[in-house]
Amino acid sequence: MEHKENYDQKVRGYRNNNPLNLRISHNAWKGKLPKAENTDGSFEQFETMALGFRAALMNLRTHIRRGRHTVQELIAVWAPESDGNNTQRYIERVCRTTGMEPRMVIVPTDREQMVKLVYAMAIVENGSRPDWEDIYAGYDML
């Protein structure tokens, strides 16, 4: 696994190159470490940060296509209260960072909108800012 020095390796999402903390699944994500090589046990691990962002963006696009079109709807499924999350605070932090409104409709093909959304979500998930370059690289691999 490639690790960049500007990402705090004590933070699980950055250590796993999985900035939005996707749980282990049967999805055949590009660049996903095989189960036998995954040292986390609960969350996916990716070869590079860009590949982790790509998977997160693809996952968000899937949620949008399934009818969760707003920031509020996306975050509610991404970080539900039932998992012990403060979903409302998560929504507020993402909206404050992006300038988006909670009920703003997200367009999955809008590169800038999706990149801003994932940037803000990565800050909430990991407590520090990711590199824009990794998010754009992930988007460009879609």
Question: How would you explain this protein's 3D organization?
Answer:
It contains six helices and no strands. With 142 residues, it is mainly alpha-helical. The mean pLDDT is 97.
Brief synopsis:
With 142 residues, the chain is mainly alpha-helical. It is built from six helices and no strands. The mean pLDDT is 97.
Low-confidence stretches: none
- By secondary-structure content and strand pairing, the structural class works out as mainly alpha
Number of helices: 6
- Portion in beta strands: under 5%
Strand element count: 0
Average pLDDT works out at 97
Largest sheet: none
Q: What level of helicity do the residues show?
A: 40-55%
Give the radius of gyration: 14 Å
What is the molecular shape? globular
Q: Could you give the order of the helices and strands? A: HHHHHH
Cα end-to-end separation: 21 Å
Secondary structure: elements and pairs:
Blueprint: H1 12-15, H2 49-65, H3 71-78, H4 87-98, H5 111-126, H6 132-140
Provide keyphrases for this structure.
142 residues, mainly alpha, 6 helices, 0% strand
